[in-house]
Amino acid sequence: MTVHTSLLSMIGNTPMLKLTAFDTGPCELFVKLESQNPGGSIKDRVGLAIIEEAEKSGDLKAGGTIIEATAGNTGIGLALVAVIKGYKIILVIPDKMSREKILHLEGLGAEIVLTRSDVPEGHPEYYQDLARTIAAKTPGSFLANQFSNPANPMIHRTTTGPEIWEQMDGNIDAMVAGVGSGGTITGLAEFFKEKNPNIQMVVADPEGSIVADAVIKGSFSYDGGSWLVEGVGEDFIPDNLNVDLIDDAEVVTDKEAFQTLQILIRKEGVLGGSSTGTLVAGAVKWCQKQTSPKRVVTFICDTGNKYLSKAYNKSWLHDNDLLEVETAGNVTDLINRRADQGDMISVSVSDT
Ligand SMILES: Cc1ncc(COP(=O)(O)O)c(C=O)c1O
Description:
Pfam families: PALP. It comes from SAR92 bacterium BACL26 MAG-121220-bin70. Keywords: Pyridoxal phosphate. It catalyses: O-acetyl-L-serine + hydrogen sulfide = L-cysteine + acetate. The structure is a single chain. The longest helix is centred in the middle third of the chain and has 17 residues, at 151-167. The protein folds into 2 domains: 7-36 and 156-307, Rossmann fold; 43-143, Rossmann fold. The strands form 2 sheets. The protein has a 6-stranded mixed beta sheet with strand order 1-2-10-7-8-9. It has helices at residues 43-57, 73-85, 99-107, 127-137, 151-167, 183-195, 211-216, 254-268, 274-289, 314-319, and strands at 16-18, 28-33, 65-69, 88-94, 111-115, 141-143, 174-177, 200-206, 248-252, 295-300. α1 (43-57) packs across α5 (151-167), α5 packs across α6 and α8 crosses α9. 34% of the residues lie in helices and 14% in strands. By secondary structure, the chain is an alpha/beta fold. The structure holds pyridoxal-5'-phosphate (PLP). Pyridoxal-5'-phosphate binds at residues 41, 73, 177-184, 230-232, 273, 275, 299, 301-302.
């Protein structure tokens, strides 16, 4: 077995698993475990590519500061590479993001600026606007900008796509991916459409996001929708998303996504992050609509270890109405934490 001399050479070359627990109609469904990257997500690839391209172009110089607006995983990818290569990093993060990701970033030594999740593009506290403001004020800074940086789709075109092609022996009919920056699906579409234009590119999109409408109807208007899954779904079309290369879309509710995560862990033993629920649920729905056998690939985009206090916490799922609960038709239905279900413990004064 290989001995690595840097964590950077352990990014990519992630394994592929065939799922068996879901009803996929006539299709076979495979997942690429991007959760196995050193930083725990698909974004390690992007962090490495953006920094190395900026080093080559001279946009990032020794002693420089990397700045990014990120939902967390791109920040972890960038911070991981920054720490190994000796750069400072400042990350602007919307406040809905999971505590585990923020603590991971703090552990890596990143400077974190938390900002509001509930403001639109153009607002000074919108995470991307705030990152631009900080970059303009910071000498020697480099704004990574995953939303328009061409290194983002490039790394999926040159590594993720070819790995999938090899793992599937070139026998693949459809790819299902989420859209955050658009880098994954655009890079993969560029690779796969050149190999075989009949390979279908499908977006799995959270309910409330505009991407599915942009793909299916060709137009969209954002109506203030929000969703609990992290890292996928948008209220605008990023520069790195080439909608023309996408063939189809499936809309997935938060409830479907979080329930899919439960099946994944209980039946397949796979601990996926929240967007994995969206992707696998979207892929299963798409598979069930097919009338002929197809080989379909999607991602375990990041590890569920980043979401233990949310996606795998029964109280949080209950509070957000994400659990399918049996109703008794009486007042017990109004009780959030039920002692008979082990959600509540009680002590009396004599219990010392
Ligand atoms: C956590 C996470 N972030 C982002 C994305 C989307 O990637 P991109 O930013 O390349 O569109 C995904 C899944 O595809 C994801 O799971």
